[in-house]
Structures are given as C-alpha cells and as structure tokens.
Amino acid sequence: MRDTLVLNASFEPLSTVTLNRAVVLVLQDKAVVEQAHPELRMRGAAVDIPAPRVIRLCRYVRVPLRRQAPWSRRGVLVRDRHRCAYCGRRATTVDHVIPRSHGGQDTWLNTVASCAEDNHRKADRTPQEAGMPLLREPFEPTPADAMLFALGADDRAALPDWLAREAA
C-alpha cells in the first residue's frame, strides 16, 4: 500500500511510496519528514523515528510536465472513492458511460466506478438508454489530484492545510 506522499524540494507532489521506502529515503538523508503519523513509530536496533506520512526530497528532481494523469481502472475507482456512480453503494468494477462496442474509449470522462449489479444491469447501453442517470459526472483529475486521491479520504484530511487546499 502506498501511503506516504513524496514532495519535491519545491514542495510540489511527486508520487506516493510505501512506508518502508519513505523510511529508507529519510534514513539515507535523501528526504526529510514534513509530517508524521501521530501514533506510529518505526523502531530498529539503533533507530527510532516517527512513521512519515509526507516526506520532502532534499534535492530538486526535474520531472517532465504532465498535463494529464494516466488513466487506469484503479485510478477511476480511487477518483470515485469506490462508490457506484449509479446507486452510491460500494463499487468494485469500472463501467464505460458510452460502451466500448459503441466507440467508447478508456478515458477519465467515459468511465465511472460501478457496483457489479449496476454494471450488469446497464449492460451494453448508455445511461439514458438504460434509465440509469449518473449521480455525479466523471471528471479528469490533474496528476497532483490523482496522487492525493490515492492517499485516501482519511489520509487527505490529516494532511497539512496548505497541501489539503491544493487537493480540493
């Protein structure tokens, strides 16, 4: 599970990493802890540090400009917070608003999270044809939003105010 946000030296979100990888970066003096989990500590024979929630790299890493977050099934589920776009229950599948058989593509604006029942009920039709209106319209997250969505709703609430505002 990737639960630690990595910031560039300029405080811009870069990626998420596992807790173990974040600890290694801190111990190698490649990153500093900007925010730690309140109750968790990482202990070893000669080490006792707070478990990092947000780390910042010590050196600036130049990354190519990304205008779009890459589409993925997991990304759609995370964007929609695992809630069905048709009924609001727990979603486990991804549904194409315009079915692939009708020319629909795997894009952020054409896919929504869906429960298996509604995905099966909608079948090979558009939401209008099936009489199943969307509870919320799909949207395309920015690359930074996609990273923050991946942290989960509970973790985002615990982020520093200046970073949580960027995700809103």
What are the SSEs and their pairings?
Layout: E1 2-7, E2 13-18, H1 19-27, E3 31-43, E4 48-57, H2 73-79, E5 93-96, E6 111-114, H3 116-122, H4 127-130, H5 143-150, H6 153-157, H7 161-167
Parallel strand pairs: 1-4
Antiparallel strand pairs: 1-2, 3-4, 5-6
Structure explained in plain terms:
- By secondary structure, this protein is an alpha+beta fold.
- The chain has 7 helices and 6 strands; from the N terminus they run ββαββαββααααα.
- It has helices at residues 19-27, 73-79, 116-122, 127-130, 143-150, 153-157, 161-167; strands at 2-7, 13-18, 31-43, 48-57, 93-96, 111-114.
- The strands form 2 sheets. The chain has a 4-stranded mixed β-sheet, sandwiched between helices. A two-stranded antiparallel sheet has the order 5-6.
The secondary-structure class comes to: alpha+beta
- Beta strand count: 6
Distance between the termini: 23 Å
Task: Going across the biggest sheet, name each strand in turn.
Answer: 2-1-4-3
Q: Order of helices and strands, N to C?
A: EEHEEHEEHHHHH
- Number of alpha- plus pi-helical segments: 7
Backbone shape:
elongated
Index terms:
single chain, 168 residues, four-stranded mixed beta sheet
Task: Write a compact overview of the structure shown.
The chain has 168 residues and is of the alpha+beta class. The protein has helices spanning 19-27, 73-79, 116-122, 127-130, 143-150, 153-157, 161-167; strands at residues 2-7, 13-18, 31-43, 48-57, 93-96, 111-114.
